[in-house]
Amino acid sequence: MTPALREQVRQRAKDCCEYCQMPQSCTRLPHEADHIRAQKHKSPTKLTNMCWACALCNGHKGSDASAYIPDTDELVRLFNPRVDEWHDHFEWDGPELHGKTGIAQATIELLKINSETRVSHRRMLIEVGEFPPDLND
Question: How many CA within 13 A on the CB side of residue 84?
Fold first, then answer.
């Protein structure tokens, strides 16, 4: 990936994870340009297949393209920041992220977005006014 493409991906996302919305400024691990459809599935490295992801979301996602909706046997595709509107699928309840759709619920579960440590981190950021970011600017 070229540095220019990586910078385009970062700027488009306003330096926030496109899955959990964590700003790069609020985490120590560097955010990464993520292939939405993994390279091992013969996906291209181009802007339309890339998103900005925090290290935790990207690490849990790996090359997965789908996951099960919690407490069901229904396999669904993961949230795709290039075709899905974030607010159509997700909503915040304090530091916890809730899925409005099966796609969101499966994504939250697979990416472990509501793990105890991540919720605790967001709770602290909320208390100091750093989270959630205003991505509508």
Answer: 20
